[in-house]
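$ fold --in a.seq
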Amino acid sequence: MDLITASLALCLLVVFLLHYYSKQAKNLPPGPTGFPFLGCIPYLSKYVERTFSQWSKTYGPVMFLKIGNQPTVVLSSFEAIHQAFVVQGVEFSNRYHTYFTKCSCEGGFGILFLHPYKSWKVQRTFGFRALMGKGLGGNSIETRILTQVEVLLQHLKQKNEQPFLLEDDLLASVANIIGDIIMKEYCDKEQNEKLLNYVFESVKSIRTSAFVFMAVSMFPWIRFFPPICGQFNEMKKGMKIGSDIFNEIIEQHLKDSEFHEARDFTDLFLLEYKRNTPGFSKKQLLYYLKDLIAGGVETSVSSIRWMCLHMVKYPEIQKKIHMEIDSVIGPDGNVTLSCDLPYTKAFIQEVFRTSPPAPIGVPRATTEDLYFMGYFIPKNTQVMANLWHVHHDPTIWPDPTRFDPERHLDNNRQFVKSDKIIAFSIGPRSCIGESLARKEIFLFFVSILQKFDVCGNKEHPVPCMKGAPGIVYSPYPYKFVMKLR
């Protein structure tokens, strides 16, 4: 028995040493060694980006580690992220695929996990133009947003200063905007109850299923064991429901094909499909719609919730924003994207700095073996950008833990947009919906502050400002009180 134990220990030691020295021999970036099979998982906290940030103080801005069996490079400075995602953007343009991503998009359909680069670039160019309203008939993007802003304001007026969860009403309004743009469908219509439930369940999954996502991505076999098995099957069931809903919408659009101008993103896509344009299939459209819904709702909703939480915590900042809105727009003026509100914009940018929606973004992958900043990085290495670290880097932001909108104003009290705040990532594979999200966030937030005092509730007057770890960095649920001004 002792001989067997000793042999096993020796084998493990050999595997460990081979793992360690092979990394050194290839001139990979420095980083924590971790354990065979598990990598650095035992060392990670629930706030992965903060663990990475601490490690970068020892290993530098380009760090190599293994997460499970996945070779991973973590970039933890603006310079390193810019070099990889902008200067060498094509070489870092793939997505890192795991069992879970292949399961969720059938191997790479849609936009989020699509590669190779040439296929993705065609879909990105098409999608970006469509989301900006290019080629769409009807109202402008700004008008579509403001329509849903008014719906939300009416809901808030009915709360009668009672504590409530803002995300419930906000979620439907934001989902209606993306639904209007991409498929002319509204979640709050009675006949669209299935779509509304799907959106709510998708957001819930994004908020609560990060552990399942990571576990199945790293160890696919774990999906057969409880409790992962039950949760994973529920996620697959939700994916199937979504596919059924969007397939029905696509088929209905094909039946209504006698249109003279495109009504929405789906119409524009189907025009390419009918022309037999390479890459424009019904399956690609199905997963494109799912990606746009998943990515286009929760990030905006979470950002607006963060802003309202800061209004409760910092009433003096809320007072300044009220004064600016009153002086520029007035209590009954029209809120538009052209409104000159430098302090309010500075506040919004500070929220993006302190609470980026996706602190480590969506992992990318190298397209080939390459040398980067003096190090060798093999093909298909997972690459993570620690956006949270850049936003809290003391060499860029003095006293980075202090919340201070003033840091984004110049000597003339004018707003200064910072290229060091990269909440939506940067480079070719940055968030396709960034422009739409920024418009939504500005118009919703300013409209709420124009009409309401955002207050805490008696039971919990001071909200928790630490976000829930997950795929999206969301605030914990909090009941606001909205008082008409």
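$ fold --in b.seq
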Amino acid sequence: MDKMTETTPESLYASMLRQSLWVVTTRPARGPGIQAVLPEHLAYQVALERAGTLFGAGPIFEDGDAAPPTGGMVILRAGSEAEARQIAEADPFHARGLRQFTLHRWLLNEGSMTLTLRYSDQSLVLG
């Protein structure tokens, strides 16, 4: 690091991304019925992804990969808590009472994403 670069916690924090995202954690609310609604839930997630609202989503496993998932996590781009809540409530799992959710504001500060675009075969690799 350059000697002239200020390294106080305040100066480091000021340069971070500090982007507000919304994390929806889900857990089962009722027994059977999830499999019947799964296609509609997945279509909803894909629509959010294509609209640029969905940052990421997937199941959560507490006991490793061998156990069934114990819940799910969805990370949303939304302008407010009310908007994020409305998006979460519209998920077919939540709307039908099959899953309950908790909404958290997440401040994305640090991290990275690797993107490789190969011109030769027009492929894209995320790492």
